[in-house]
Amino acid sequence: MAMRRLTTRRVLPAAPRFSTYTARLRPSSSPVLRSPAAASTGGNGAAVFAERVRPLMVTDLDTFPRRHIGPDDSEAVEMLQALSPPAKSFDEFISQVIPANILSTSRELLSLSGKAQSQILDERDVAREANEIAESNESYTSLIGAGYAPTVTPAYTPYQAEISQGRLESLLNYQTLVSDLTGLPVSNASLLDEGTAASEAMTMSLNALPASRQKRPGKTFVISDRVHPQTLSVIKSRAEGFKVDLKVVDVSSPESLDAIKALGQDLVGVLVQYPDTRGHVHDFRKLADAVHEQGALLSAATDLLALTTLTPPGEWGADIALGTSQRFGIPSDSAAPMPRSSLSRKTSSERFPAAWSTREQHIRREKATSNVCTAQALLANMSAMYAIYHGPEGLKAQAEKLTHWARLIQAVSEFYGIETEKSSLDPHGRVLFDTVILKAGNATPRLSTGPDRRDLEILLEKVIKESATKNQSVSYQEAFEAAVQQVGASPSSELPATVKRTSEYLTHPVFNTHHSETELLRYIYHLQAKDLSLVHSMIPLGSCTMKLNGTTEMEIITLPGFANQHPFSPAEQNRGYQRLIDELEEQLAAITGMDGTSIQPNSGAQGEFAGLRVIRKFHEKQPGAKRDICLIPVSAHGTNPASAAMAGMRVVPVKCNTTTGNLDLADLEAKCKKHADELGAMMITYPSTFGVFEPEVKKLPGEIGADVCHLNLHKTFCIPHGGGGPGVGPICVKKDLIPFLPGKSPEAGEPMVSSAPYGSASILPISWAYNKLMGTDGLRKATQFTLLNANYLLARLKPHYKILYTNENGRCAHEFILDARPFKESAGIEAIDIAKRLQDFGFHAPTMSWPVANTLMIEPTESESKEELDRFVDALVAIRQEIRDVEEGKVPREGNVLKMAPHPVGDIEKKFWPTVARVDDAYGDLNLFCTCPPVEDTTQE
Q1: Which contacts of 437-443 are long-range, i.e. CB under 8 A and separated by 24 or more positions?
Q2: Interval 145-186: pLDDT, tens
Q3: Which site in 373, 391, 421, 863 is 20 to 30 Å from 848, CA atoms measured?
Q4: Considering the domain 565-759, what is its CATH architecture?
């Protein structure tokens, strides 16, 4: 009998979903598309089917929106009917969700190179276009350095702790890596890039001062003149809001110690680069002593790979280490930062609970000094695996190889009469890590060695061709052979004792075990098996938008032309990137109805800060009174007031209606009148933080409309979260604000808000492709189904749970809030218990206790099918019955399945579970059967 069950007749493929004009093909239907004539003789069902598909070509059935959007059209009809009250059509439904005065009727959303795109583009065409764009980038080994280096990623293929054990363990590995190499006891993985990390170090130094010093009118943060230029630019954008003066000095000079001491109580802290942007390494012990004597903190921006050979900052007196682990297998236009405080901790039974410290912006709001929200967790995990793969000895060998090559370049250059900058710490003046400065007349190139021999060849060729005199200009082969004979092929990589590392690092077994590709692959898969992701079930995290990231979108970011482009490489080498970026910026500007875009912010919170800073700088250029007050609803995400405070604005909260969640217009009007002369901006979230389209929103800005619109590409536009980043949070602005957008280089008029001119550039092709693949109609349809899926869940759950904040029609926007507060009294059950219990049903929980404590915010996205939505509802309904059992005294208030959830598999977690029972192989070999469909399935009635 067991074998008979395994050898049932072949089942037709899963029912494909057609576009707007087609019915769904059911399993019992023939997969053959008949002509209308043939269909007319095949029964009414076949005739209707053929009539429905007649307007379409066969290729129209194979469209990206059809696969991206979960429910098909027949299911949409069922879902519309299931609403309370039912809706007769999509148009009627949308009119009940979105207020008429803001509902857009325009069909020209996307502007691509000046042409509106309403049609859906084929995935193959988009892939070909992406390949063409990538190939038009000229890929050279970059000589620029300044914190960005070419790297080779080995070709190995956080929310609820219990089902995020894999990523938490990997992040703990990353933290161990950072802590060991920097020589500091505590580390985290939650910042964006080196410039952002340096800004956080500045505000951290400010917060560490006594309150009396924080309030002083004169507050100075000292920065080394050898800090990477882009880092200094980002710090400038932050320092203004905190009224901190920046003083750039040569911290390696004896005079700098006297200057720092002279600042006295005004000193906030000091930032140095180690190794610095010109490749030099300094002994900062005396500087550290001087800073500490003033009661301030010393921060070191550093390179993790260099710290395998150099004395770690924690051993020579640094209080904060920051920088980038981009050297560890990350493309050079991205950065995994090295930040500063604890993320995870280990408990009994090898469990890793998330130990996120409460984000200060949610508690302190307008008094917060940080708005960090999105992390670079995916890149941190990549760096951790890179370190595990190479191990401590492999990483050290890489660092020594770079030093060897840099010294070889230095020696060859000097052999040809090109003077180089000498290290003051080395008795022979040799470079101490990977960067050589050539003194070649007016042009002084910076050469940073890369990860393979070919880089050395290109560097030497550039030195000889561009820096040598005409009579010295010889071929690379001749030059190299002649120079090596004179200087020797193997200059020593030995370092002076003053900066040479002697302490151990990466001694944990995880960094000394998985050095073969096979072992690393198994370790990665062991970790990922502990995590729930979208491959398992929907992740209904409200405010996070965990939707499908399509394969076509993801594949193109691996194209070579998008990978190792230096962020500051010449424009002529990045024509492809510039075309893609220009098109994406045009798309976003058209969608938002704005005139200009900056995609530099690499998180949502950073986009908030960038947008408010644009407004702030605009007002500073206008005559009249200072306009620095920003009105923000009390319901807003904590990053909103924190971002405003960071931009130097004063936050005035606006009340919300406790019943509807909408803005209190009377309070808004009163606040506007009170602060009329100083009012600079109002910042709102739309749809609102409570998940509804407020009907009176147009009364807020009047007829002028919005001036800045901030977006999250890592949510709405399909860039994956990766367990917490990387992200892209662009801003779109009106024409008058374009001059105040973030600068695209350290030398630009406006400071940068990220370390790279285009933020996380390597993931921008994802959103570009999404817009191309969806087209105007596809994006509109995705929005409709986002709203329908949310309202369908709301309608099905409303009989079982209290729902907060719907509009006057009982509808929500793309998310809604399920109220768990009544259960605390009735059953001793809270939102966290429901969240834990959902794991037993195979689901990640919705967002918990935000924006209202002890509630669950649910967002399904357009990618989820009706079947998955129903499965999620069934789980929550079953959980509601379990709560009712507690309420009715059938089960105890403590020790029930909710209080004990989730229920783990324990010691057998590494076992692979077969999907079928025992198979009789011999019987199957001797009893073959035909896999073709039975005759009755192919005959006509």
Answers
A1: 437/278, 437/279, 438/413, 438/463, 438/467, 440/466, 440/467, 443/467
A2: 666 665 656 554 446 777 778 888 888 899 899 999 999 988
A3: 863
A4: 3-Layer(aba) Sandwich (3.40)
Q: How far apart are CA 804 and CA 849, in angstroms?
A: 13
Contacts of 653 (CB under 8 A, 6+ apart): 366, 631, 632, 633, 634, 641
Of 537, 543, 545, 635, the closest CA to residue 857 belongs to: 543
Question: Is residue 56 a contact partner of residue 21, using CB atoms and an 8 Å limit?
Answer: yes
Domain boundaries, given as residue ranges, for the chain: 161-391, 565-759, 775-901
- Write 876-879 long-range contacts (CB < 8 A, 24+): 876/797, 876/800, 876/801, 876/818, 876/834, 876/838, 877/797, 877/800, 878/841, 879/834, 879/837, 879/838, 879/841
Q: How far apart are CA 619 and CA 628, in angstroms?
A: 8
Fold match, 565-759 / 775-901: no
- For 100-127, the pLDDT digits (tens) are 888 775 544 444 434 445 566 788 888 8
Residue written as token pair 């570009």 = 768
The verdict on domain 775-901 having CATH code 3.30.43.10 is: no
Q: pLDDT tens digits for 776-832?
A: 888 989 999 999 999 999 999 999 999 999 998 999 999 999 999 999 999 999 999
Q: What type of residue is 836?
A: K
For the segment(s) 161-391, the CATH number from 3.30.1390.20, 3.30.70.1350, 3.30.1440.10, 3.40.640.10 is: 3.40.640.10
The Cα–Cα gap between 127 and 890 comes to: 59
CB 844 within 8 A of CB 532: yes
Could you give the strand order of the β-sheet that contains 220-224, starting from the edge strand earlier in sequence?
A: 245-249, 220-224, 267-274, 297-303, 320-324
